[in-house]
């Protein structure tokens, strides 16, 4: 969720005319100050990021190649190099593949549902007057601002078999949502969509509003149908925003931890609701297999890196200036 | 501006759309309503198998239990300290870094920017294991520092990336003017640029505040034995008991945890909108 607003920034960049760019480049005054000044400004940021982000990534990779369990942590045994041993263990474990598949499918379901709901509501927002729009905006902001932990507890309570209003309303009796694998995933999906659609809705709505009305009027005057305007005018203009929103959602939903952990009590009955993040956590901290947990972390890192590269390529294709 | 929304809508269609909008709004708000309602219900009504969407005898018992049974006030303060420190520190550090990458041309500038972008995608959760050992080696386990430092590191790349746009929006001419008027670079930085970029800083801090305030994994992993250093998300889980969850306590605790974020949102909302709006119009 940390990167929601750069969408807004992307939008800005996308709607800004290219004029200022040229002037920035040519009109830049010659600097008399030392070449070290920018590095001085960057120093605190680089120290913090280097020490607490880059170095841990290196460490993560390192641990994944070592024998690292409780014995090594307490200093009882020396650490030994295992090469790809941990990865072999991981890749031959059927549970890993099952969790990986569940993670990908669950993240895909979350992304698709979130985008569909967010975009549909954004379009709906453009068709209503100020008051209903305000009501939905305020409600969505509330869902957006709700911390993941409290959102999870509230949704579990809403669907509680004994005291929850939902089962009562749907006449489901004491049906336990967290008991079955798919119903538990469905419950988590609902919560995830609830707290992540507002970001998509607000961003896409802002994107639609940023389309100059002259363009739409011109299209209408030229006799374009409603559907044609939507398909041939608005969708291409919204493309940059949709790309950012989609990529953000993928990254975000792939890394889910809190919702699964809290709502299914650490990964569900017999680990039926595990996703990669929770799986890595359980391996490392519940069964002290730190090196296996790190290997799972590396797999996640590589997958997200691939998504990032796609994102960078799309940004470049859109002609973004860094 | 409204032309795009009005020219194609017929009236009955709009009424249906508005009814749907209001219904969706009610559904989206319902979980939060139910949370506050359940926190205010007396114990008997919560444990009722026939839950009603209102209560005739609101009580603060659940809140009292939350604050009495545990040191909830202390956890609240801990959460506030962690989030507040991260917000202030990341705003200052990101401001300097964003100025460096937008106002100067130097070698590796583009490389750095791409790095900041890639760094945003690093799954924080995957780094829990190495960070755990790092914190242990620095003797930071069970301290609030073990939460502040990683969150600072994780909020910086995004904050820099985002502030870049705001710093860029301040005209170059202003800096030249300040130089001609004899202002030193430091003075320009803090007395001219900083106030101008302030709305952007506020918008950025919303995100570092929320991600830090919501943190669950780091608190769970790094604050293992010293409960006096616990933060709110951890405290909340105490009310989950194997057989009998104290739903009143959980809902009251959730309410206490959600309210500051909502307040923060409302407080900065105008600045957030004006900050972004300004950038959009530019």
From TrEMBL, chain A:
The chain crosses the membrane at residues 39-58, 96-124, 136-159, 179-208, 229-251, 290-312. It comes from the Bacteria. Keywords: Cell membrane, Membrane, Sugar transport, Transmembrane, Transmembrane helix, Transport. InterPro entries: MetI-like, MetI-like_sf, UgpAE/MalFG_permease. GO terms for cellular component: plasma membrane. PROSITE patterns: ABC_TM1. Residues 100-311 form the ABC transmembrane type-1 domain. GO terms for biological process: transmembrane transport. It is found in: Cell membrane. Gene3D superfamilies: MetI-like. Its main location: membrane. It is a multi-pass membrane protein. Belongs to the binding-protein-dependent transport system permease family. This is Sugar transporter. The lineage of its organism: Bacteria, Bacillati, Actinomycetota, Actinomycetes, Kitasatosporales.
UniProtKB/TrEMBL annotation, chain B:
Keywords: Cell membrane, Membrane, Transmembrane, Transmembrane helix, Transport. Residues 76-268 form the ABC transmembrane type-1 domain. The keyword Disulfide bond does not apply. Its main location: membrane. GO terms for cellular component: plasma membrane. It holds the Pfam family BPD_transp_1. The chain crosses the membrane at residues 15-36, 75-100, 112-135, 147-167, 188-210, 247-268. PROSITE patterns: ABC_TM1. InterPro entries: BP-dep_ABC_trans_perm, MetI-like, MetI-like_sf. GO terms for biological process: transmembrane transport. It is found in: Cell membrane. It comes from the Bacteria. It is a multi-pass membrane protein. Belongs to the binding-protein-dependent transport system permease family. This is Sugar ABC transporter permease.
């Amino acid at each position: 969720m940390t990167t929601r607003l750069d969408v807004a920034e992307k939008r800005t960049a996308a709607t800004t005319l290219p004029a200022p760019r040229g002037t920035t480049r040519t009109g830049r005054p010659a600097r008399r100050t030392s070449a070290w000044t920018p590095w001085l400004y960057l120093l605190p940021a680089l120290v913090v990021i280097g020490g607490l982000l880059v170095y841990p990534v290196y460490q993560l990779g390192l641990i994944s190649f070592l024998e690292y369990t409780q014995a090594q942590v307490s200093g009882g045994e020396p650490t030994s190099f295992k090469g790809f041993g941990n990865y072999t263990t991981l890749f031959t474990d059927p549970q890993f593949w099952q969790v990986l598949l569940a993670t990908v499918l669950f993240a895909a379901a979350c992304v698709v549902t979130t985008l569909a709901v967010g975009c549909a509501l954004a379009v709906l927002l453009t068709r209503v007057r100020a008051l209903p729009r305000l009501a939905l905006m305020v409600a969505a902001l509330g869902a957006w601002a709700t911390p993941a932990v409290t959102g999870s507890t509230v949704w579990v309570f809403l669907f509680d078999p004994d005291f929850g209003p939902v089962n009562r309303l749907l006449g489901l009796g004491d049906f336990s949502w967290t008991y079955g694998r798919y119903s538990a995933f469905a419950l988590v999906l609902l919560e995830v969509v609830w707290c992540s659609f507002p970001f998509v809705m607000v961003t896409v709505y802002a994107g639609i509003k940023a389309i100059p009305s002259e363009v739409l009027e011109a299209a209408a005057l030229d006799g374009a149908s409603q559907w044609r305007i939507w398909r041939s005018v608005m969708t291409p203009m919204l493309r940059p925003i949709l790309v950012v929103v989609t990529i953000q959602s993928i990254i975000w939903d792939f890394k889910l931890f809190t919702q699964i952990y809290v709502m299914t009590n650490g990964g569900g009955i017999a680990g039926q609701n595990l996703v990669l993040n929770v799986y890595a956590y359980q391996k490392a901290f519940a069964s002290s297999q730190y090196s296996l947990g790190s290997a799972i972390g590396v797999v996640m890192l590589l997958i997200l890196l691939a998504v990032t590269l796609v994102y960078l390529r799309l940004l470049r294709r859109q002609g973004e200036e860094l | 501006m409204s032309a795009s929304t009005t020219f194609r809508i017929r009236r009955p269609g709009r009424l249906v759309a508005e009814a749907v909008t209001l219904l969706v709004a009610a559904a989206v708000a319902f979980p939060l309503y139910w949370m506050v309602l359940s926190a205010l219900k007396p114990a008997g009504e919560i444990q009722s198998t026939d839950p009603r969407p209102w209560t005739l005898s609101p009580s603060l018992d659940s809140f009292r239990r939350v604050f009495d049974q545990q040191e909830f006030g202390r956890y609240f303060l801990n959460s506030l300290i962690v989030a507040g420190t991260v917000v202030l520190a990341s705003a200052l550090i990101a401001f300097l870094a964003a100025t460096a990458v937008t106002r100067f041309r130097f070698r590796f500038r583009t490389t750095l920017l791409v790095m900041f972008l890639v760094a945003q995608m690093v799954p924080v959760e995957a780094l829990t294991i190495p960070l755990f050992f790092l914190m242990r080696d620095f003797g930071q386990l069970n301290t609030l520092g073990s939460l502040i430092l990683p969150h600072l590191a994780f909020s910086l790349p995004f904050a820099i990336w985002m502030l870049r746009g705001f710093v860029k929006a301040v005209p170059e001419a202003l800096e030249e003017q300040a130089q001609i008027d004899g202002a030193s670079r430091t003075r320009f930085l803090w007395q001219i640029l900083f106030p101008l970029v302030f709305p952007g800083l506020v918008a950025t801090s919303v995100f570092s505040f929320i991600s830090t305030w919501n943190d669950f994994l780091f608190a769970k992993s790094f604050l293992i034995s010293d409960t006096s250093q616990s933060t709110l998300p951890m405290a909340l889980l105490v009310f989950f008991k194997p057989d009998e969850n104290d739903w009143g306590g959980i809902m009251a605790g959730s309410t206490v945890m959600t309210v500051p974020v909502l307040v923060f949102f409302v407080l900065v909302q105008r600045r957030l909108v004006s900050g972004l709006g300004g950038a959009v119009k530019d």
